[in-house]
Structure formats: C-alpha cells, structure tokens
Amino acid sequence: MNLMMMKLVILAVFLACAGLFVIKGPDGTPLLTVDKLLEDLPSSPSDLLPKELELPEEPLVTKIYKWKDENGVWQFSNSPVDESGAEVLELDGQINTVQAFVAPVQEEKKKKPAVIPGVSTVSPQQAGGLMDTVKNLQETIDQRKSDMDNTSGN
User: For the chain, what are the domain ranges?
Assistant: First the structure.
C-alpha cells in the first residue's frame, strides 16, 4: 500500500469518527457528544475494581511471625509457628504481603539399598569380554612402561 493510499484510509477513519459528533440522531441531538463519551469513564482508579474486591476504608493489621532457624537464618511467615524466640510483628495494611508457601505432602519413597560407588554387576556372558579388555589394557600399560624405561636408559 503506497503512502497516498494510507493517508486516504486514515482520513476516512478520522471523518467517520468525527461524523458521529455531527450526525443527528432521531431525537435531534448528535449521536455522540463529549459528555456522552466521558460519562462511562471511572472517576478514580479504585472505581475499576470489582465491588467485592474494593479496599476497606481502614487498613487491616497483618500479623507476621519472625524467628531464626537452626542455621541462624531469619524466617518470616504469616502463619503462626511453634519456634522458640518467635516474634509477632503487626504491620498496617499499607504494604503488600505474600502468602506463605505450603509444600505439598509427599509420600515417603521406598529407600533403595545403598550401592557402592564404582561397583557394578555384569552378566557371565559379559565377563569373558571384560577380562579380554583388561588383559589388553594391561599389555598396553606394560609395553608403554617398557618403552619409557628404554627411552630413559633404565
């Protein structure tokens, strides 16, 4: 679309919108006026909230529980805790708080027997091939040691 065509489209949209302020309705008044346009706008941002979510007139007091855990790290929660030395802080409703995380309860997993690191089992069919590999590796190591001894003059 070329620039001239784009300008014509923008002009047509503008005239269509402006026409609503000029064209008269059945009652003889313009279809749209500035007053009609602004009457549905909220007077304040709080008017945008649903009625059941409106903020209370007086701020609520939030209780926060604070304590040090066994590692000496401060912990905070909005749920009461049975920790020695836990303090209760009362905060006014002018702040944001986040609900405490409650970890889902998990069933205990069956414990597997301890495995010795580096130890694995092989089938008898694999044992023969494994022994051949070990013998070849030992021969290679012995040959390299011999080559190093010959190089160093021992």
Answer: 3-39, 57-102
